[in-house]
């Protein structure tokens, strides 16, 4: 594997490791009832698996999100750590409150894996990365009862990603940047306006070496707004 192919694989895993949109656009509880959401996020891809969690908060149609995650790379028996943040807004289309759109931006900082002899030459390398995504999510409530809502979702993002690989013996740094697209499809199941489970598939396009990943996100609404 070339150095560029390696860092592209790292980029492809990291950029889909953290969800970017909140509220009904992503099949999550509404901020109209709960001002805070805690979430856990599990991602399965060909290069490894990611576990992430965080907190989302919203008020007056705008939201912010912070998250912490770790990715395990099975082929290298190594892990990385990531910190992410996102911000955006939500608005409804039509008077029936069934179609919701969320434009937003997110940034992800990855640290590791480190001390890897990935090329078999004895030199060991450490990795750092930064991914910035700008896009929008769409959620449509197709079923609604007092207890359950079912919300198919779709998203489209443009991503600017940068990965750095440092030779820990010589100090030489290789930097690779890429711009590509990312689309996702999912279905959110919202129970009692407070608990939500959403399976998704995310597919990068316009970048070689990155493949689709599958994820499950569990969200819980926290706090209670006065009515």
CATH class: Mainly Beta
Number of H/I helices: 1
Q: Walk across the major sheet and give the strand order.
A: 1-2-3-4-6-7-9-10-11-12
CATH fold type = Lipocalin
Which tags fit this structure?
mainly beta; 1 helix; Lipocalin
Structural overview:
The protein has 227 residues and is mostly beta strands. The protein has one domain: Beta Barrel (Lipocalin). 5% of the residues lie in helices and 61% in strands. A ten-stranded antiparallel beta barrel has the order 1-2-3-4-6-7-9-10-11-12. A hairpin with a 5-residue loop joins strand 9 and strand 10. The termini are far apart.
Which secondary structure elements does this structure contain, and how are they paired or packed?
Blueprint: H1 3-14, E1 36-44, E2 48-59, E3 62-73, E4 78-89, E5 91-93, E6 99-111, E7 125-140, E8 143-144, E9 148-167, E10 173-191, E11 195-205, E12 213-222
Antiparallel strand pairs: 1-2, 1-12, 2-3, 3-4, 4-6, 5-6, 6-7, 7-9, 8-9, 9-10, 10-11, 11-12
Gist of the model:
This protein has one helix at residues 3-14; strands spanning 36-44, 48-59, 62-73, 78-89, 91-93, 99-111, 125-140, 143-144, 148-167, 173-191, 195-205, 213-222. By secondary structure, it is mainly beta.
């Amino acid at each position: 594997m070339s150095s560029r192919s390696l860092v592209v694989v790292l980029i492809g895993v990291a950029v889909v490791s953290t969800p970017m949109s909140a509220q009904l656009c992503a099949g999550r509880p509404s901020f109209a009832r709960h001002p805070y959401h805690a979430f856990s996020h599990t991602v399965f891809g060909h290069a490894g698996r990611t576990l992430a969690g965080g907190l989302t908060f919203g008020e007056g149609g705008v939201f912010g999100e912070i998250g912490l995650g770790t990715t395990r790379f099975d082929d290298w028996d190594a892990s990385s750590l990531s910190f992410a943040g996102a911000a955006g807004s939500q608005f409804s289309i039509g008077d029936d409150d069934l179609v919701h759109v969320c434009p937003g931006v997110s940034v992800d900082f990855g640290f590791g894996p480190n001390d890897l002899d990935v090329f078999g030459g004895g030199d060991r390398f450490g990795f750092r990365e930064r991914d910035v995504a700008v896009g929008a999510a769409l959620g449509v409530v197709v079923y609604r009862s007092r207890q359950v809502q079912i919300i198919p979702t779709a998203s489209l993002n443009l991503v600017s990603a940068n990965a750095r690989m440092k030779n820990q013996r010589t100090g030489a740094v290789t930097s690779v940047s890429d711009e590509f697209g990312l689309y996702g499809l999912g279905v959110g199941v919202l129970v009692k306006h407070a608990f939500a489970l959403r399976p998704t598939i995310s597919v990068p396009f316009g970048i070689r070496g990155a493949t689709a990943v599958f994820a499950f996100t569990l969200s819980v609404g926290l706090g209670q707004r006065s009515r």
